[in-house]
Amino acid sequence: MKYIIINIVLLVAIVASSFTQRIETTNLRCEMLQNPQGIDVVHPRLSWEISDTRNSVQTAYQILVSSSQKKLDANDGDVWNSGKVNTDRSIHVLYSGNSLKSKTAYYWKVKVWTNHREMPWSKTAEWSVGILDVNEWKAKWIGWEKPFAWDSVTKFSRLSARYLRKQFESTSRVKRATAYISGLGLYELYINGKKIGDQVLAPSPTDFTKDVMYNTFDVTESIQKGKNIIATVLGNGRFFTMRQNYKPQKIKTFGFPKMILQLEIEYTDGKRETIISDDTWKLCGDGPIRSNNEYDGEEYDAGKEMNGWDKASFNDSKWETPELVEAPGGRLNAQMNEFVKVMKVVKPVSVKELKPGVYIMDMGQNMAGWVKMKVKGNAGDSVVLRFGESLKPDGELYTRNLRDAISTDKYILKGKGTEEWRPSFVYHGFRYVEISSYPGTPSVADFEGEVVYDDVATIGDLETSNQTINQVYKNAWWGIASNYKGMPIDCPQRNERMPWLGDRATGAYGESFVFDNAKLYAKWLDDIEAAQKPDGAIPDVAPAYWNYYSDNVTWPGTYFLVADMLYHQFGDQEPIAKHYASMKKWMDYMRDKYMKNDLITKDKYGDWCVPPESKELIHSKDSLRNTDGVLIATASYYKLLTLMKGFATMLGKTNDVAEYDGISEKIKTAFNNKFFNQNTYSYSNNTVTANLLPLYFDMVPERNKQQVFYNITNKIVKENNSHISTGVIGTQWLMRGLTNNGQPEIAYTLASNKDYPSWGYMVENGATTIWELWNGNTANPEMNSQNHIMLLGDLIVWYYENLAGIKSDDKEVAFKRIIMKPSFVKELSSVNASYHSMYGAIKSSWNRIDNSIGWNIAVPANCKAVIYFPVDKKNIVEKNRSIQTMEGIKYLGTQGGQEVYEIGSGVYSFMISD
Predict the structure, then answer these.
(1) pLDDT the model gives residue 48
(2) Domain ends where: 787, 804, 821?
(3) Do 854 and 870 contact (CB within 8 A), yes or no?
(4) Which of 97, 120, 561, 595 counts the highest number of beta carbons within 10 A?
(5) What sequence ranges are listed for the domain Alpha-L-rhamnosidase concanavalin-like (predicted)?
(6) For residue 29, what pLDDT is reported?
(7) Are 472 and 615 members of one domain?
């Protein structure tokens, strides 16, 4: 019998999946994407993956949840025994047992029945509940509400880290110890001299006046009998804002760093003890971290190190007593999205002397994080590290595109042997590092680049026979990873690093094929909702660190598109239910304020960053290249109405469905009356975006669709010489728009071009990430970040859904029913892609062999796939058997010139020939 594996996934309704652990029956293998402690919801959702024979479908499950491992081993589901439930549902199964208790661990497993057999019980998975009731927080917020004498609170602030410690005594054997902490802006936690956890830059950033994240750690093994020290270091992060007393109308500030901590100890003799943050702690600001600022860097003076400060033997009599400070204002919530961590190590490829005492180090890859350094010298020697993405022609570091971000780390030696250092509370976007004042001669052996991003699994992989596409995909991976920092940011290097909504509209969808980003984006939807004003306005940046409420449609529209992505890709409709009221409020707000004659009249950004006519420009000045803002706003609003109609249908809001239908029809009529030219069959000034949006959003009268699409292809092929001419908005729908209307070859040309403007042009000019501008190597440095992803549009979606043929059905979502319809473009000889869905691994790999196509497919258990074969290929066999004779394969007919079949789970190897 084939060995059976069940992977268990715990999904917590925050409202979306919050952390994942996968467990194999062969050996217990927990892939912790987030510490499984401290969830603060009472109805977690449970999911599992099944590995079984071909055409396997789950027919029933049984879940046991127990209060102890011993009870679970005895099959005593004292917390919840679901009984045998006859269903094929294996994701987002709502916990329906006894009420969960704060600060309590739970153990669970699942048994599955399939159409083939009864499976054995899975291995155990565990979760723990954090603090459910705010009244259970006994700890107090503590801090120091003023700068120290050596600090500077200015536009270019310098604020040293704050060090806090508390001694306590443990007299009994510890059964369980749990620490709950929120340190703002950022913290590091130590117990008895050892750092707790491998996370960095924690907790996740929020608008701290609305929401504050706390983290939970099992510290049982860290508590020792006798004296103990719990200690923290507080960095500035987004709390003490990088630019103080500067543009207060634009930049939101929160105050000086502060902390709340509660340590719960349960002893084996039944006694309990709680250690809390209060004014019995000790505080010092005169430690080695002299300054830490996300834009400007970190300065560390090793000569100021306080040896043993985080151990019981240290004398803290000269330290200050911390102040009891006002809470930041936001609700304390358990952080459900993944920690930021050091995820990769990059070795530098060279260190070259630029001039005496100044060296340039090349990491070989644009990245986000920091460098870890080894250095040996005298006390007081200092090393200065400046970071940049590229070099000037003369080899010097290029920093103009950083604006006023200083992006410099400084390390002052203590002079005791070989010293190692990395920063704690900053990160940089860089490929190159200028090293100055280094004692001796630096070499590649003295440095490592540590790549820092959210601990999200890479769940997709794609490679083709075209090297340009492969490199663009690799660059996209690096760009996406660089800009995951507890929220999706626009860039990691200059004085911005903001969570712009417009950058992630369709981008989040593409990213979901590469990374398991469900929890990150569920958290971000909460950030967006928290930033909504009482009148309904949604900002362009959320959390709203910048006060940008421009009331356009396309940027706030990301709120809707991301919620739809979480449902479509991960099967999670809870974000839609949670945020529906806020979405409706914004729809009403925009309609009431900006709709005139059934058109939305407000737009700010247009088709942001179309390729300009001159490579030195940022934005095109040619009106024929730019698309009417009212057209963009109205078409986008119409698209959002379509989404809202689907959301309302899902939630049973029939009155809203009728309302959206009525508004949609009026808008479509007004839109076509205003913008459609009956003589030329084009919209507005006939840009690709002007025609593409109404065509893709189904606003074009049926009888005119073919002519409108002809205008799109004619514009691309003839006027633009088969090159891209769209900006951020048009590019979100471009590749699928071309392919869905029968022109995948044109889409392939755009994807594989190497000259300006194209993604390949970036590669040909040395890019290892994605640029902010199509001409990012020549444009004005005010806006030419070399690590942006907004111009990816729907390219990654197209890679997976159209080149590889891995797409979820729109009704049986989360890849329960997989649509496998590759574009077997003639210029490609092979595509090899995989994607790990909620149900398991999906694979699609095809290659040309003379006039035949070999196509290997893997479909997870409990899923099915609809597969499309070219109709001009008459012979389809699977392992030398004709597809028509194979058991479990269903012929669905011919569609759009393709033979269509439905298959069940399993691994298949097809050969398609004439």
Answers:
(1) 95
(2) 804
(3) no
(4) 561
(5) 353-453
(6) 24
(7) yes
